[in-house]
Amino acid sequence: xxxxxxxxxxxxxxxxxxxxxxxxxxxxxxxxxxxxxxxxxxxxxxxxxxxxxxxxxxxxxxxxxxxxxxxxxxxxxxxxxxxxxxxxxxxxxxxxxxxxxxxxxxxxxxxxxxxxxxxxxxxxxxxxxxxxxxxxxxxxxxxxxxxxxxxxxxxxxxxxxxxxxxxxxxxxxxxxxxxxxxxxxxxxxxxxxxxxxxxxxxxxxxxxxxxxxxxxxxxxxxxxxxxxxxxxxxxxxxxxxxxxxxxxxxxxxxxxxxxxxxxxxxxxxxxxxxxxxxxx
Length: 280
What we know:
280 residues; 2 domains; six-stranded mixed β-sheet
């Protein structure tokens, strides 16, 4: 009797293990889209016969701000409306999911578990500090640090001018060294001018992955030749830089396209909707 019970328990455990092993792997998360616009449209397409306009009475948009731990219903639209309008109350990562509800009140999917779209809202411009030196040989070196949550690996735009009110000229760097410190972005760039040409000021322009732009100016520091040699590549950045105009980059034509099993997501160029725009 005990042997039969043990065999029955073993068989039941084997079935449970088999069921656990047979569970499908969770769907991979979509790559996040970064934007500097706090308000944007979320267009959607209806895919498959079960999600046709004839079968669906409404489409619901759910949003999570804690990476899927909790989902809240953000809004409901008719299938023919084909988009939602979303406004982020603050910077952060937002997960979105769609589901349809038919005329009988049946929701598909019954439960929201994975996002169909991930958007990171970043409206903060990079914070820059820079210093620029010119050696008696004419070589100019600019060093900067960058405080930014979503930096790019692109080199910055570097310009200089000879006179206080002179035109800005884009320089051709002879050396670019990104920072090796993973906790702080930045780097060093050098270029050559004629020894008899004193540079008055340097301007540095950087942008982050969301399209925020920061511009900083730094007057040239005249340095002795020995201070610009290889031994000074790690010179400290002085405190107290002055920040000048931050001009936003033009938005790209398309921030990305993501398809999900339940519906096709398309993020067009984010925009701020006019007052009274339907969709929320």
